[in-house]
Amino acid sequence: QVQLVESGGGLVQPGGSLTLSCAASGSSVSSLCVGWYRQRPGNEQREFVATISSGGQDLLENRVKDRFAIFKDTAKNAVYLRMNNLEPDDTAVYYCAAVAKPPNILVVLERNYEHWGQGIQVTVSS
Fold it and tell me: Which of 93, 79, 94, 82 is nearest to 27 (CA)?
């Protein structure tokens, strides 16, 4: 059973940076497509932020692609979301999700992920 644990959230001022971590156990990130989603205050739905395939290809949502980056460390079996130039609108609970996929497959739809972390709060405020 794949388990995911997020860390690295917290309070940051506008313009600041944070790096979220998603530590995986039960499977290697080399065989998982891992995505990041967020649920902003007042929104019932989670929204796609970024994903990285088991082969290392990545895709970021248009509104964040110039500020965020997704990458992984296979030695630590973790996937990271580096967030720069944060804005108050980035305030949300961030979730990582994973599903076993071949190296060339990127998963964007939330319903196609099988494993989820518990979520971590990111607050951007002065």
Answer: 79
Contact status, residue 53 vs residue 101, Cβ threshold 8 Å: yes
* Tokens standing for residue 27: 């499977």
d(CA 33, CA 88): 28
pLDDT tens for 44-99 read: 999 999 999 999 999 999 999 999 999 999 999 999 999 999 999 999 999 999 99
The two tokens of residue 37 are 């989603």
Which positions ≥6 away from 43 have C-beta within 8 Å? Answer: none
pLDDT digits (tens, 9 = 90+) for 26-44: 999 999 999 999 999 999 9
CB atoms within 10 A of CB 76: 12
